[in-house]
Amino acid sequence: MNHFVITGAHVFDGENSLGTVDVEVADGRIASVGGTRPDGVDLIDGAGATLLPGLIDAHTHTDEQSLRQALTFGVTTEFDMLSMPQQMIPVRRKVAASNDLADVLSPSIGLTPTGGHPQQLRKGDPPWPTATRPHEVAAFVEARIAEGADYLKVLVEDGQLFGSGSLPRLAPELVEATVRESHSRGKMVLAHAMTVKTAGQVIDAGVDGLSHLFFDRPHTAELIEKIATAGAFVIPTLTVIASITGEPAGRRLAEDARVFPKLTPEWLDNLSSAMATSPREHFGYAVETLAALKKAGVDILAGTDAAHLGAPGMAHGASLHDELRLLTTAGFTPTEALRAATSVPARRFGLPDRGHIKPGLRADLVLVDGDPTVTISDSLSIRRVWRNGS
Fold this sequence. Notes:
alpha/beta, Urease, subunit C, domain 1, TIM Barrel, 5-stranded mixed beta sheet, 13 helices, globular
């Protein structure tokens, strides 16, 4: 049994700062917070550091190597947002058997038309299952659940923002059917909808969350109110929007001395690149939209859209820390940004065992030098990471 106490660290419990308190870990779980220190237990000195819950990246496309890399940056859980079951099912078996990889949830394959987004960006995939009529959607949902889907994903995208020309776009009635069939089976539905028009359509259809901000034009007050009234959450993915609009956020992150020693040259090149398929001013639309959503009380979850080599501007693990920084440019306090990567995604995805530092929860923990509740960039100054206390 691994049994230790982290001493002398400032503790952020996923919601609030607790000050300097001991955190005891036993057999992979948090045993006590601020309790009496047991005799003879191993002590880990946290002086000058802050203890955080393991970070959650709420939007990735991942694999074994990416989950290993994410963990080195304190990301202990990734929410995959689309994957091939032939790859994800064996990866999830490895995750269950090893604490050397971040945990992962997944929707398996998302619903998109034949030839629809993101098939134009992916090479070598087997044929994608789809549904062309509402009565076919139940079978699609059942098949994804059989593959282990934790939630469902729909993609409503014509490709213009990615410089892909005009692609087939998922019909509104198919989104509605996916919501109906998924909810009847106790599963959430997330939607890829990156324009004002399509975001309104999927919210009207009843999706639980948007996996990106919409940024093709300035938001409307009506759409912001619609999202807030629906109780939907939003994963902004400012990281990928920066890449799409040619913002140099990834390049600056790759130059950080806390980042480049942990990445291979290939990943550093990937992080330093950008798609640059949409006008630069669209990034400003995204930041303004995020600020409006925050003001309206919409739950915001930190996510990056980090994917594979060849998806430029992102790197698993590292990019989540820059996403937190980008959230603060839209008016989030450092504490609010940290909640977006800990307690908020845990709550919205129904994961009561993580996202907080509380007795009985998984000992997914990150010890960082400094205090990211004051200076958000301190989250990158990682001293130690534990998944399940290891």
